[in-house]
Amino acid sequence: MTILTDITTLEDIKLLVNTFYSKVQKDEFIGPIFNEKIGDRWPEHLEKMYRFWQTILLEVHSYSGSPFPPHKQLPVAKEHFDRWMEIFTTTTDELFVGAIAEEAKLRAKNMAEMFNYKIDYFRNAAQNGDLLNLK
User: Would residue 103 be called left, alpha or beta, if left means φ above 0 and alpha means ψ between -120 and 50 degrees?
Assistant: First the structure.
């Protein structure tokens, strides 16, 4: 039996990200959305995710940018974010235990909820012809 430890290094981040996205790519529900959007750019996407999570969890400021815009037009709904969160939580729990692992799950949950809210907002605004008031 392997004793789980917390997320403390870039190697831990890479293990989490690689394991998580490997599951996402194969998932029947959300996999096709990711695979269509990312295409053959998976290595580039994974590198960006390493930097993103390293910045958030380890306070090593290696990521800059806005994570939301690439997701704005995705054909997703709450059920997709729920599945994404289910895979993320399960993966994190399989690999790690500790305060930073719990922080990762909380940050992922908050991000999923915010992305879902913003995607709905933009969709509703577009349907209502209110695009001029969007920032």
Answer: alpha
